[in-house]
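Task 17 of the worksheet. Students: predict the tertiary structure of the chain below and write it out as structure tokens. Keep your answer in the requested format; marks are given for formatting as well as content.
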Amino acid sequence: MITSESERQQELRGWFAGRLPDDLFEEVTEVTVDREEITVIGRIGAPRLAEDTPAAERDVALRSRIEEFRERTREERMAAARDAEHRFGRKVSWGVECGGRRALFTHVAAPVMTRLRQPERQVLDTLIAGGVARSRSDALAWCVRLVQRHTDDWLTELRDSLEHVQRVRSKGPDADTREDTAAPDA
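Model answer:
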């Protein structure tokens, strides 16, 4: 029986370490779980390139290596995913790290869009139009990652801004008129 998140992570890592072929990844770098999904990320070897290889060429080489790995290992990954889904009752998603790049192959996209109002959806559509995301789901994920990356700094800045706004409001024109409007002259 699993009694803690730490033990659940250990069980999952151990299960995948035992179930996956030894040569599938150089190393399983991350196994995460939530209510819907288990995500397995492994490191694969980067293509051998000269140090002075232009960035565009390096980028294409990394993408090609990732695509080749995805196609070549599809059957092995699908078999392991079926076994894991049966055992753990969650979908399995796969990804790789290669030469400093991370790519997810398949992953669950839980529907969260239903509660967003039009202004929020327009923000997501702007990210799509700007080429930041391919879909509203990708745009929302991008927003979450951005906030996650800057949570501490951003929240501290937000709290400071709120304190500043409260100070400014207390000195604004409504501060004097509140007393006047509370007891109007007859």
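Marker's comment: The first strand starts at residue 27 and ends at 33. The first helix runs from residue 5 to 19.
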